[in-house]
Design brief:
Layout (H helix, E strand, L loop, with lengths): L1 E13 L5 E7 L3 E7 L18 E7 L7 E12 L9 H17 L7 H15 L4 H18 L25 E4 L4 E4 L10 E3 L1 H8 L9 H19 L6 H5 L2
Parallel strand pairs: 3-5
Antiparallel strand pairs: 1-2, 1-4, 2-3, 4-5, 6-7, 6-8
The protein binds zinc ion.
The site of zinc ion has 8 residues, from β7.
């Protein structure tokens, strides 16, 4: 049976001299892995090898979901250009690769997430339009928090995740922490019960509790928030995401 969808390539590896194994995040079907036979031949039906972040219409056959699907058509929505401009800026490219790594890790095959598809496409488009480092970090943080929400792991950021004290009602000078095991912010009264907590500066806690303001945040605070999120993703996955080291040291 042939299935048509729109999809973004989130992984592409060589399978043979002429073929690739590609992972697509498809809007209606969810994540699929497929073999693109002959995609590396100069005159293939795919107009050349399929690159990561290629976006467009796909047709694939998935007669047996236990096995690799077979990609039969791919038509890029942007001609040959795609999001190739992303590689002009290494930090932007690394942020996009990090986003696709997390998308791959936190979704299952054939589990559709159309909202997450739209968010990721928007994230790539915003990244492609060129941003300075702070703007790119803010985009990455918002994408990462959106991803957690879409896969049912939304962290509690408007209150203490343990005692539910509203963040807005805090007293000045109150300390706030983030705990992966509590899945959110933790207040000073509760922090002792969460050995994995990370202390947040007042500024970082303010932005995390009010994400609408995050685009105005300074790079130092965005770095702090991203460090907390990398810590959180590491706890959730049981190991550090591969791209993490390229985000905070660049
Ligand atoms: Zn509390």
């Amino acid at each position: 049976m042939l299935t048509k969808d729109v999809a973004i390539c989130i992984r592409a590896v060589d399978f043979s001299e002429t073929s690739q194994i590609v992972t697509f995040f498809a809007r209606a079907a969810g994540k699929i892995s497929a073999i693109a036979k002959g995609s590396k031949r100069p005159k293939s039906t795919f107009d050349g090898p399929i690159e990561i972040f290629s976006y467009g219409k796909i047709v694939f056959s998935d007669s047996n979901k236990e096995k690799l699907a077979t990609l039969t058509e791919f038509e890029s929505a942007y001609g040959s250009a795609g999001f190739t401009g992303l590689s002009n800026n290494l930090f932007t490219l690394n942020c996009c690769l990090f986003g696709s790594e997390l998308l791959n890790k936190f979704t299952h095959d054939y589990d559709p997430h159309p909202k997450l598809f739209d968010d990721f496409l928007q994230f790539l488009q915003n990244a492609h339009e060129g941003n300075n480092k702070s703007e790119m970090l803010a985009l990455l943080i918002l994408f990462q928090l959106g991803l957690l929400k879409e896969v049912g792991l939304r962290p509690v950021l408007n209150a203490c995740a343990n005692c539910k004290t509203r963040y807005e009602g805090r007293k000045t000078g109150d300390e706030f922490y983030f705990s992966s095991s509590a899945n959110g912010l933790i207040c000073r009264d509760c922090e002792a019960s969460f050995p994995d907590k990370v202390r947040l500066t007042q500024t970082a806690a303010n932005y995390l509790s009010n994400l609408k303001l995050i685009a105005e945040s300074k790079e130092k605070t965005l770095n702090e928030i991203e460090m907390v999120l990398i810590h959180h993703f590491t706890e959730l996955l049981g190991r550090k995401p591969k791209m993490a080291k390229h985000i905070l040291l660049s």
